[in-house]
Amino acid sequence: MAELRFDTKKIKAGYSPLDNNLAISPPIYQTAAYDFKSTEHAQNLFTYKEAGYLYTRVGNPTVNYFAERVKALDGAKNVVAVGSGMAAISYTLLNLAVGGGTILASPYVYGGTIDAFDRLFPEFGVNIKLTDAILDPEKLDAEITDDVKAIYVESISNPNAYLLDIDAISEVAHKHGVPVVVDNTLATPYLYRPLEHGADIVVYSATKALTGHGNLIAGLILDNGDMSLYTKERYPQFYKPIVMLGGKSPADIFPDNFFIFRAILVYLNLLGAALSPQDAYLGIIGLETLSERVSKQSKNAAKIAAYLESSPAVEWVRHPSLASYKFKELADKHLTNGGGGVLSFGIKGTPEQEAEFLNNIKLFHYHVNLGDARSLIVDSPNTTHSELTEDEFKLAEIPRNLIRISAGLEDADDLIEDLEQAFKAAGLL
Length: 429
Hints:
The chain is an alpha/beta fold and 429 residues long.
């Protein structure tokens, strides 16, 4: 059979009823552990001589079905699902920079990610440098020293909805033998697939648009299967013998998958942010409507953005659908399925009027999630990005009057009318 198309993969990939008593919907394997067939079987599992399940913290069939489906949608070679998007980011960067090193990171990222950069990673000897050089290949080239272990970016950024040129970033990074890690949470593989643009590793908060219903916490790490980039000189951790592997290294055991394998063996196993089978099942169900959800969210966001750009209550608007968008040429080239459901705008009023506006919203939900079937609104500088310093706010181009919207699946005209009445209640119209 020919390669399946995207919308068929989101329904079929990674699961076979033949392996599960002909069940059409993947079963929830709600079990902590699995019986061993024999002592030999147990030893083979623990030394990775044989594939199978031994404990749900490090492997579960339902979780695997979810991960394999996302792997197919992204065109990845290897994958692991974990308990949250932050776990996916943390395990990925620790896996790359264990023992010290520098990660060059985009300043246009989620506030919780920057908080981890500032407070968590330095405790492990990892230096994170936020740099706008990711916008300029020549500047980025100059910043990649022997100490740099990875480039970290978001494909579509939170909260500004900036689209970065992953092709250009990857070309420069690979010249220095450094992998590119892309958080693709806002885009999802329906809008953008970073591995097709030169990225090496993709991470997700699957909590958001990927599963789309605001009812689970989950993360994923995927890679392109090219292990040649991880040289013994720059990344010795992949080549060090481990006792439980019989004195062999991750690279010895899985030469085509030692990045993900080590992340499972060390970080998922020992730090333990496992994804539950129940949440994995909810994720599988959410994936089945990915295209339909994100397509409508993109259209709703574009219609809302156009309304906001015409409103006297608004100072500026950022969304890939707008002619004024900072990366319009890049968006027109790559975001052919839509610009995504997230947009941001600057409210033209006092902080008191901003609060009055938010307190009078009726249809939008005022909270910090993204990509939900419901429309969401939040004042990012005071919530999701409140951890940033003044210098980080400036570098990330997040003004204090920024409001972020995650468009849902409601009627766009109803959402616009809700914004209109809230502007009026705040005295902005």
